[in-house]
Design a protein that fits this description.
about 190 residues; mainly alpha; two-stranded antiparallel sheet; two-stranded antiparallel ribbon; 7 helices; about 10% strand
C-alpha cells in the first residue's frame, strides 16, 4: 500500500466509534490535515465498517453534516480532556443536532442481538453523537486523553492509563525521537566542561 494510502486509512483503534469519527481527520492541527472522509462514498464506507450503514444512500449534505458534527465533538472532547468548561457554541450545536434527530431503537435478533440499521446518515450520526455524550458526561470521561503531538491532538480512550500518544504509530515515533534527541542534548550539556 503506498504511503498516501496509509495516511488515508480509517482508524478504528481510538476506543469508541465517536472517537474513531474524530480520527477521520488526521493531523487536524497541522497546516495540511488529512481528510479521510473526503467524499460521500468514503463516508458511506466508514459507516459500513463501523456497522452503521444507513438504509438510504449517503449524499453531499450528509458529508457536510458529518464534518460539522465531528468538529463539534472534537472541541467538546478536547475541553473535557483539558478539564476546561465546554465551549458554549459547541454544546448548543450538539444539543440542536440531537434534538433534530430522534432515532428510535429497533432491535433484531438472529445470531446475535442487533439494532436495526439507521434509516439515514443523520440517524447514524445521531447514534454516534449520543455515544459521545454518554462518554463525555459519564465517568468514562476520565479515560479520555489527547495526543500531545501539537499537530495531532487526537482524542482516544485509555482506561488503563498506559498510553502517552494516540494509537497512530507516527505520533508515538515522532514523540519518541524528539524525547531521545532532548535526552542526548541534555547529556551533552552535562558533559560540557564549565
Amino acid at each position: 500500500m503506498p504511503a498516501d494510502d496509509d495516511r488515508l486509512a480509517f482508524r478504528f483503534d481510538c476506543g469508541a466509534t465517536w472517537l474513531n469519527l474524530l480520527a477521520t481527520r488526521g493531523r487536524s492541527f497541522s497546516p495540511e490535515p488529512v481528510e479521510r472522509i473526503a467524499t460521500p462514498e468514503r463516508l458511506a464506507d466508514w459507516f459500513a465498517r463501523s456497522e452503521l450503514a444507513p438504509e438510504r444512500p449517503v449524499g453531499a449534505g450528509d458529508l457536510a453534516q458529518a464534518w460539522q458534527l465531528r468538529e463539534t465533538l472534537r472541541r467538546l472532547a478536547l475541553a473535557t480532556v483539558a478539564q476546561q468548561p465546554p465551549p458554549a457554541e459547541a454544546v448548543d450545536a450538539l444539543g440542536a443536532f440531537l434534538a433534530a434527530h430522534d432515532d428510535p431503537i429497533r432491535l433484531a435478533a438472529d445470531a446475535r442481538l442487533r439494532r436495526g440499521a439507521p434509516p439515514t446518515a443523520a440517524a447514524a450520526l445521531a447514534r454516534i453523537a449520543r455515544q459521545a455524550v454518554d462518554q463525555l458526561t459519564g465517568p468514562e470521561r476520565h479515560a479520555l486523553k489527547a495526543c500531545p503531538e501539537h499537530d495531532c491532538r487526537g482524542v482516544f480512550s485509555d482506561p488503563a492509563d498506559r498510553r502517552r500518544w494516540c494509537p497512530s504509530p507516527a505520533c508515538a515515533s515522532r514523540g519518541r525521537v524528539r524525547a531521545l534527541r532532548a535526552r542526548r542534548a541534555a547529556a551533552q550539556q552535562e558533559a560540557q566542561p564549565d
